[in-house]
Amino acid sequence: MVVIKQKTITPSGTVRKLIIRLIIACIIVGLFVWQAFAAVLPQDRSDAMYHSYQGGGMSIDGPSILLRKKIGNHVSVSANYYVDTISGASIDVLATASPYAEERTENSVGVDFLHNKTLMSLNYTTSSENDFEAQSIHFGVSQDFFGDLTTLSLGYSKGNDEVGKTGDESFLELAERQNYQLGVTQVITKNMILGLSVENISDQGYLNNPYRSVRFIDASSARGYRFETEVYPNTRRSNAASITANYYLPYRASVYGEAKVFSDSWGIQANTYKLGYIHTFGDDWIVEMRARHYQQDKADFYQDLYTRSAEFNFRARDKEMSTFNNLSLGLSLTYEFQFSAANFFKKSTINLDFDHVNYNYDDFRNVLVNSTLEGDTSGIAPVGEEPLYQFSANITRFYVSIFY
């Protein structure tokens, strides 16, 4: 048996440089600036949303309700209810199992506290489905300084997961997750805002999906291969850094962009680029167009096909661990109308978001293609030479917001 030792990598040069620069910036802020000038509580609002995802053999949809209200001049509280109704199955699951249906419910509550112009936030979230339970807590603090031209934000999140498996009552695994965030936003000119942020993520425990399997060559099998359960390392360290820019145009429009890099101790390297344009029409309409590209390299222990059972200590075939890219094109429409100044409700918006995403995989193959040939062996692809997998998905969000 060949033994693979888990590799621990440091952030890429770009990530490391950004981390060092932001840490230096925070030290300077801590030494010379403490009082903020313009921190404000979030607006009072209520949102009702319907969301839908269709693609890759999966159908996910459901409602979401958000309520937010200030208490006096220093406290704002919020609550959110979110539901995912899931049906179908991704190609990873269909290779070894049948489509399924389940529901995930997420509840969260939060409080924002404004003290001496420092804004602090605390949020608690629970997520529940038939084979998975999760709890997480997040604390954040932000401050404006240098005449409202600079904003510093810090955040910390901690989560605990309980992972089960349908059909196996004895299966129970645990995972713990921690996330540290640091961000600086700077007004560069009267028309341009620049932002830098870094994240450090630490995961420990059971980190793979109990329904995902790897495949290995087996000449005794009719299809030439068999499946066995994935095995992941029980620790993962991730680092990410991003830069964002917003430029406001003179004709009531703006353009924005984002570049993000990511690396982890599993060998995954990824980058994301996003570009968008926002335009207002009259006093009521806002249109946003956007494009996003994501690309990643595979994990060190990922393979589409192994030469034998238990070939390595760690094994993965989840397509999210492979080398792939996706391109997303999106459009948003918002209609806003004002109420009377004497009315309890100040304004309302109706919003429609739509994104179309194309996924292309470089080393994950579609093993289902041979099962659709209905006995015609002339077109069966040899094991390991099946066509590379690709699919598209549509994501829709429709929501109404009322501000009061």
Overall description:
The protein has helices spanning 13-32, 91-94, and strands spanning 45-55, 58-71, 75-88, 100-115, 118-129, 132-145, 150-165, 168-187, 192-205, 213-217, 225-229, 235-249, 253-264, 269-281, 285-296, 324-338, 347-365, 388-403. It has 404 residues and is mostly beta strands. It has two helices and 18 strands. The longest helix has 20 residues, at 13-32. The relative contact order is 0.13. The strands form two sheets. Strands 1-2-3-4-5-6-7-8-9-12-13-14-15-16-17-18 form a 16-stranded antiparallel barrel. Mean pLDDT is 89; it is low at 1-37. The protein is globular and about 80 Å long.
Summed up, what is this model?
The chain has 404 residues and is mostly beta strands.
Write the layout of secondary structure elements.
Layout: H1 13-32, E1 45-55, E2 58-71, E3 75-88, H2 91-94, E4 100-115, E5 118-129, E6 132-145, E7 150-165, E8 168-187, E9 192-205, E10 213-217, E11 225-229, E12 235-249, E13 253-264, E14 269-281, E15 285-296, E16 324-338, E17 347-365, E18 388-403
Antiparallel strand pairs: 1-2, 1-18, 2-3, 3-4, 4-5, 5-6, 6-7, 7-8, 8-9, 9-12, 10-11, 12-13, 13-14, 14-15, 15-16, 16-17, 17-18
